[in-house]
Amino acid sequence: MKPKIWMSPPTNRLRKCVYDMVTSLKFEVFILIVICLNTLTLCIKWPEMSCEVEIALSWANVSFLAIFGIEAGVKIAAFGRRYFKDNWNNFDFTIVVLSVLIGTV
Q1: Structural domain harbouring 85
Q2: What is the DSSP string of 45-93?
Q3: Which of 64, 65, 77, 79 makes an SS bond possible with 83, Cβ 3.0 to 4.6 Å?
């Protein structure tokens, strides 16, 4: 295992504020909870599922994608190009971009 790449805080006050938010434990826990809820909604499927449930799950997935897109955006704002030096960030970014592309096809 390689150690996680350390991202030094930016000098710009606004970016520093965003940096402090995205590196906080509360933000990490929130994203982890959203990942777990997203996983649960992706697992929900049963025979003869009502149209209303399918629509609700579809909207939930769109909401989760929006949250993950916002997460990537604020992390890019906080870290700049250094965001792409972390493989987990690259993975997350790729998943978000592919989800948007596949969802619009």
Answers
A1: 13-104
A2: --TT--HHHHHHHHHHHHHHHHHHHHHHHHHHHHHGGGGGGSHHHHHHH
A3: 79
Amino acid at 28: E
Is position 92 within any domain?
A: yes
Q: Is the dihedral of CA 90, 77, 18, 100 positive or negative?
A: negative
The CATH number that applies at residue 27 is 1.20.120.350
The model's pTM is 0.85
Residue 81, domain member (yes or no): yes
Domain count, the chain: 1
What residue type is 87 in one-letter code? N
pLDDT tens per residue, range 57-103: 999 999 999 999 999 999 999 999 999 999 999 999 999 999 999 87
> Taking each helix axis from N to C terminus, what angle separates 51-79 and 25-43, rounded to the nearest 10 degrees?
150
